[in-house]
Design a protein that fits this description.
heterodimer; A: alpha+beta; Heat Shock Protein 90; 3 domains; 5-stranded mixed β-sheet; 12 helices; B: alpha/beta; Rossmann fold; Arc Repressor Mutant, subunit A; 2 domains; 6-stranded parallel β-sheet
Chain lengths: 401, 219
């Protein structure tokens, strides 16, 4: 076997074991709650609700470490109804197993690395330990000499071997009851799930249609009008060329500049469909790029745990681009700040500056276009700009995923 | 001829006004919304209103609705609707109010100044100007109609020009034939399509358009 293969195998095994340990310990998180929930069920009212909540937590946890656990339809919360409900009965069964198996396994996942570390590192500190103290973690033997200490170290290596070899299996063992008992059974009613997926899919399609409509509109009302203007001016110039060559030339000049505008608009439209930088570097990277190009020094603070729909990110990008242009042109600001947050299914965007304020979106067309674009995504744009500043542009967009 | 122009694109609006003024026509008012167009029509009482279909706020069919409303308020007003693309439903909506003094053209026809001015004059004097593209669509979609198949190729050409709103002599000029020949073709067309013959251009256009529209629906 080549060295690279050995190295790859070693790294692979270590990574798998580390992930398995993490999973075991995270399982401890829900397992440690099981005795309390069990007590609650027996002693206090409202326990069914708590049981459902804990089962929900476990589903989320399992989805983090593997395939999604599809939840069955929400079970009843009243005790009498819940007792006859198969979902609740399965959750109860899971609760007992997670307490009996998941909790010890979780503890093992916590203790094993500690033991391994303690014993493997024993030669480093055994001389500092009090005389006649138990040397090994399993509670037998006293080390009096270097060979003894090395033997303890060997025990540590043994622990590591156990971790590498057994933890993936232990993690599976701990997860199995949840995966089996908490998912919707094969005969379960999945109509709710289907309805949910249908709704999100419809929303995505709708966002797509909105984007297509916006592009169609900018082509028809912008570029096409420009080109029509060119033909109108050319037609007028042709009529004029014999009787008034100078006037015809002026019309041709106008026609040419209209054609140039058409080209510029075409460029803008194609860029506005999706700025290439968004696909390459994500919203955070794209906004950092915009800030770097800004004439006014600009700080960027983006916290997005996941990506939003491409058209939504593009909209956010254009809001910032327009805001920064306005800041550079009109505000007299010395610095600007871009903040992006994505709590839950929404994208919140805020651009502030320390300029003189008094911005009016009706004087320039840029912000009006941006507002239309935001509205097309079912979002809102708020501009506050009292005289004396500061100017704040706030945009709230549905994430679209 | 007194004209009101409603077009939301400033460059195109100015270009149109420039073109018409250079031709000695009187542009008495301009507007950039459908509302503004109705106000300008009420204020200036023009002979013709030139309306863009898509205007603020929704950029859909404001111009068509303004055209219908303006003609309801002033039955004598001639309206020429300009559109960026052919939409059959717009044409149908416009034509249900009668075809006299009505035009529906693609925007780029304005560049062919001579023909555009012809169309404008025709509409201003109570005639009709339907874009060849609209007529062509009606033709292609109603080609399964057996009676249309009875027409000779030349008769089909004449029918298409008739549907656009041209009079006999204008058709003769386009096809490089005599007025008499056109007259003969038209009589033959009406006979083959079972339409009542008429010399009045707008009634003729209405008959032809309704025939084509019917044929399209049936197919």
């Amino acid at each position: 076997m080549a060295t690279a293969d050995v190295k790859g195998l070693a790294v692979g095994t270590a990574t798998t074991a580390a992930a398995a340990l993490g999973q075991l310990v995270s399982g401890l998180g829900t397992a440690i709650l099981t005795p309390f929930v069990l007590l609650w069920l027996v002693l206090a009212p409202g326990g069914v609700r708590v049981l459902h909540a804990l089962a929900g937590m476990e589903r989320v946890r399992l989805a983090r470490w593997g395939p999604e656990v599809v939840a069955p339809a929400p079970p009843p919360v009243r005790l009498r109804a819940a007792l006859g409900d198969p979902t609740t009965r399965r959750e109860l069964l899971w609760l007992v197993r997670h307490l009996a198996v998941g909790l010890p396994l979780g503890l093992l996942g916590f203790v094993l690395p500690v033991l391994a570390l303690r014993d493997a590192a024993f030669p480093l500190y055994w001389r500092l330990a009090p005389k006649d103290a138990t040397a090994t973690s399993i509670g037998i033997g006293v080390a009096h000499s270097w060979p003894d200490a090395l033997a303890v170290c060997l025990l540590g290596v043994g622990w590591i071997a156990i971790i590498l070899g057994l933890t993936p299996g232990l993690a599976r063992l701990q997860a199995n009851p949840g995966r089996r008992l908490l998912s919707a059974g094969p005969d379960a009613d999945l109509s709710l799930r289907v309805a949910e997926l249908t709704a999100t899919r419809a929303a995505a399609l709708d966002a797509h249609a909105t984007e297509l409509r916006r592009i169609e509109r900018s082509l028809h009302d912008g570029t096409q009008n420009r080109i029509v203007t060119v033909t109108v001016l050319l037609g007028a110039a042709r009529r004029m060329v014999a009787r008034d060559p100078a006037g015809a030339d002026e019309l041709l000049e106008r026609a040419q500049s209209a054609a140039e505008q058409a080209l510029a608009e075409l460029r803008t439209v194609s860029r506005s469909i999706l700025p290439p930088v968004l696909a390459d570097r994500g919203l955070a990277g794209a906004l950092t790029g915009l800030a770097a190009e800004s004439a006014v020094p600009c700080a960027v603070d983006v916290e997005m745990p996941r990506r939003c729909a491409a058209s939504v990110e593009a909209t956010a990008y254009f809001v910032v681009a327009e805001a920064l242009t306005n800041i550079a042109k009109h505000s007299g600001a010395s610095r600007a700040t871009i903040t992006v947050r994505a709590p839950g299914p929404r994208l919140l965007l805020r651009v502030t500056d320390d300029g003189r304020g008094g911005a009016d979106e009706h004087t320039g067309s840029g912000l009006t276009g941006i507002r239309r674009r935001v509205a097309a995504h079912d979002g809102t744009l708020r501009l506050t700009s009292p005289p004396g500043g500061p100017t704040v542009v706030e945009v709230d967009l549905p994430c679209g995923v | 001829m007194r004209i009101v122009i409603a077009e939301d694109d400033p460059l195109l609006r100015e270009g149109l006004a420039l073109l018409l003024r250079a031709e000695g026509l009187d542009v008495v008012g301009t507007a950039d919304t459908a509302e503004g167009a109705l106000d300008a029509i009420d204020a200036h009482k023009p002979d013709v209103a030139i309306l863009d279909v898509r205007m603020p706020p929704t950029h859909t069919d404001e111009g068509v609705r303004a055209a219908v409303e303006a003609r309801r308020r002033n039955p004598d007003l001639a309206v020429l609707v300009l559109s960026a693309y052919v939409e059959q439903s717009f044409a149908t909506e416009l034509l249900t109010g009668g075809v006299g003094g009505l035009g529906y053209l693609l925007k780029e026809r304005v560049g062919r100044v001579e023909e555009f001015l012809d169309a404008l004059r025709r509409v201003a004097t109570g005639g009709t100007a339907i874009d060849p593209e609209v007529v062509a669509q009606l033709f292609t979609r109603s080609h399964q109609d057996v009676r249309l198949e009875r027409l000779s190729p030349r008769e089909k050409d004449v029918l298409a020009l008739m549907a656009e709103g041209l009079g006999n002599s204008a058709i003769a000029e386009r096809l490089f034939v005599t007025d008499g020949a056109v007259h003969k073709h038209i009589r033959s067309i009406f006979a083959k399509l079972d339409l009542a013959p008429t010399d009045q251009v707008d009634r003729r256009v209405a008959a032809v358009l309704h025939y084509l529209e019917d044929a399209r629906r049936r197919s």
